[in-house]
Amino acid sequence: MTSNTITPVILCGGSGTRLWPVSRKSFPKQFIDLIGEGSLFQQSSKRLSGTGFAEPLVVTNSDFRFIATQQLHDAGITPGAVLIEPEARNTAPALLAAALVQAQRDPQALMLAAPSDHYITQADVFCDTVKRGVAAAQAGQIVTFGIQPDRPETGYGYLELDAGDVEGATPLKRFVEKPERAEAERMLAAGGYLWNAGIFMYAAQTMIDAFAAHAPQMLAQVQEAVGQAQTDLGFLRLDPDAWAKCEDISIDFAIMEKVSNLSVIAHAGDWSDMGGWNAVHQHAVKDDAGVAVQGTAHAVDCRDTLLRSENGAVQLVGLGLDNIVAVAMPDAVLVADRTRTANLGDVVKQMRANSVAQADTFPKDHRPWGFFETLILSASFQVKRIVVNPGAALSLQSHKFRSEHWIVVVGTAKVTVGPDQDNLSVQMVEENESIYIPLGAIHRMENPGDVPMELIEVQTGSYLGEDDIIRYEDVYARGQGAKG
After folding, report:
1. What pTM did the predictor assign?
2. What domains can be seen in the chain, in order of their start residue?
3. Is the dihedral of CA 31, 36, 38, 43 positive or negative?
4. What's the confidence (pLDDT) of residue 275?
5. pLDDT, averaged across the chain
């Protein structure tokens, strides 16, 4: 008998530019404490856990693999498997890879594919909606979940419903691309349309069969990528050569718009894809004037405005603002008319074209062992704050172009250093103590304690880039030139 237990497939490899400057390529919106308790990824994972759900199957990329597992650990969730995409190929290959991995255990296992950046406060209502689709998925349907629209939204795709009923699910008549305003108003008035949430439930074999019928070439490529996958520190790294052959295409275009066994369950609870600052403003706590204040910010005589400061040392003050989004980061500030924030993706592209570092990266850079943040950067020296997690260690490494001076300010650092691998010494560096790492010296720092260890690093040299690393040993299996 087929089990009713659902395996969530949580996609968390993308980057959201429409929430710049908080969300960037190096640390995108799904991992940020944007709204609510915890990151959107943690909220999604918690929502799809507990009774009726198996351990989640997570699909992400190499840059985010340790961030994802650390956030799951912090949320008290153990993943069933973590698939590493060698490069971004959109949702079709990612979901097929997950289905193939799951089918190795149970071809009839139910799977729920969900993005990791959705915001839903009524988790119990959403889970009830999902469970209403179980019978249809067990019967061989691909079930998609639509949201009851409450406004003529032009930023979402729509689902047009057909007559009839399939085990509690309504057959889909057609997908509707993002409409113009007049068409959105018409659909809202007519009824029979739902927003397309991009959430799907199906048996693993059902999805594989859909690819066999409508995208056989991709099926062969992803089968090869899964078949040649390598286990890497508990992650399943898909074969890069086979993966590179896959078309970059969404599951909607590759499969959903072609299959005949697709049905819809309507979700009447709250939902947002957190696609931009307007969505944050909509769901944030606001005063009677429609003003939302987050972090160290203060509003005076403002209306319909969002003020957010991510820097505790910076007080963001809004005076007399109307319909504005203002976001202050340590290295970038956004001030925008709320009606224009959907264009932030284009702004980020322009910054990239102009080689603006803030387009994609933060001064605070997350690593498997913790994080560092740049405090001062000049042509010949750099000052960083480095935080190493309990029990974590940086790689054994050396640098061609810089020397380093470490001052421990919290905890104890276990430091290995020497002129070559045959002449290494180990010493403990306590709070308020320091150690010098000469240019070319082989070195490593570790945190032997049970609390985060912090130090200040002063680098001096002719080149201070993160790729100036010769790596000798690394518990995180990163290659030469990899950051951190």
Report:
1. 0.87
2. 6-267 (3.90.550.10), 280-343 (no CATH), 364-473 (2.60.120.10)
3. negative
4. 87
5. 92
